[in-house]
Amino acid sequence: MSQKRPVESPEPLEQEQRRLNDEIRVTKRRAKGHGSFNAQFWANSQELEILRLQRTETDRKISLRNFPGTPSEWEQTEKAKDIFQMIKAQQTTIKLYQRRADELDATKGDKKNKRSFRDAFMKLFTTSKMGIGISQTGTGTRDSRQQSAFREELISLGDAKHPKYDWLWCPIISDWCEATTVQAAHLFPHMHGQEVMDSIFGKKTPPELFSARNGMLVPMAVERFFDSGKFVICPDLPDRPALAELLAWIRQDSREYRLKILDLTWDKLDHPLSPNTTETWRSRDGKKLEFRTSFRPAARYLYFHYCIQILRRAWGHNSSRGSVSVLEDEAGRPFWGTPGRYMPKNMLLALVEEVGHEYKGLLDGAGSNKSEPTLLLEVASAQIKTRPALKDVDWHPEDETDEDEDDEEDSY
Q1: 161: how many CB neighbours lie within 10 A of its CB?
Q2: What are the TM regions of this chain, as residue ranges (predicted)?
Q3: Whether 93 contacts 381, CB under 8 Å
Q4: What's the distance, CA 26 to chain centroid?
């Protein structure tokens, strides 16, 4: 029997949406006058995020009102999953902003800690598509020369160029693709910046934000799903590997990986991976990625990408049982747990608490070094807010594009 929905006049919702868009613009302009990390900065940031959350809730009501089916059917749509992800990310950000304000008060008398606190989060919170929208700081526009060199390094190390045609090899779909349709994608996105990357993984020499170790060649037909919580890249091991198998995989010079579908309700499961193949995402599930050389992306960045997809998947559902229930349909639990000593356990713990304690396998192998505990969760929230799961969603208003106009592909 279909669930009944209350009949709601469309006009109040559209009026509310316009009102919130106006308030957001005013609040952003006011917030830009307080670029320093003081109490007013966090108060403004929190106020802005609350308004954005209210707008997303209004978007949810409009989308549900316009959907021809029942609420439960709407919740299974990609549009609904995107909205739920955004709502959860915004709710989390509001809590984290409050935490930042409280911590800043605690460090008022400690200049060293205050300086460290400021440096660690400057780029995370002040890029033009995050935080309060200060465009003069943060990662800024991506250097095209850096990106070109990044792409060429991936092509060279992966022997990805076809000897005869203008094609490039994609290890995810194990096939050749037109070179003009292939992007060099960052596993740890460019938008977070080198400083935040160093805060999570530790400093590397040379820096690895634009290193091939932090990238993969991804066709545009695949890229739109690459960071959408639909699939993950994980070790090519049995679902529940024995300890000896896991250790053997860790010791390999070139570790092997496979594709694993996370969202078994995905409406594209039976669609071709690309225009040039009949293989579907469903048939690709569990298959090994095929690299043409011994070069592999760094496990730490693949693991980061994995964690973000797990969180995105968990946040993409409206469930009374919380995030854990929506992950129970995954094959292969427990999760592979070898992030290495470079990812601090306290960061991963904050992430696990969002996903659910039953998934504490994410913590296996984590380093014991101390660091800012919620940084990974803050990065994940910012990434999910900035990069909707699917680029063709139409629910999100574009009224802020005058101030948030960065090219979305700079995220990679």
Answers
A1: 17
A2: none
A3: yes
A4: 28
Contacts of 146 (CB under 8 A, 6+ apart): 210
Structure tokens at 112: 């060293």
pLDDT, tens digit, 9 for 90 and up, residues 52-62: 999 999 999 99
Tokens representing 312?
Answer: 């995105």
> Which of 405, 311, 320 has its CA nearest to residue 359?
311
Q: Please report which residue ranges of 158-269 form alpha helices under DSSP H.
A: 193-201, 220-226, 243-251
What's the Cα-to-Cα distance from 78 to each of 24, 91, 224, 284, 392, rounded to whole Å? 26, 20, 13, 21, 10
Q: If you search the block for the tokens 């400057």, which residue do you land on?
A: 122
Q: Which helix (H) or strand (E) holds 209?
A: none
For residue 124, give the nearest of 405, 380, 410 by alpha carbon.
Answer: 380
Euclidean distance between CA atoms 349 and 367, whole angstroms: 11
How many residues are there in the chain?
A: 412
Which position has the token pair 């960071």? 227
- Show Cβ contacts of residue 247 under 8 Å, excluding neighbours closer than 6 positions: none
User: Could you tell me if residue 3 is left (phi over 0), alpha (psi between -120 and 50 degrees) or otherwise beta?
Assistant: beta
User: Model's pTM, two decimal places?
Assistant: 0.78
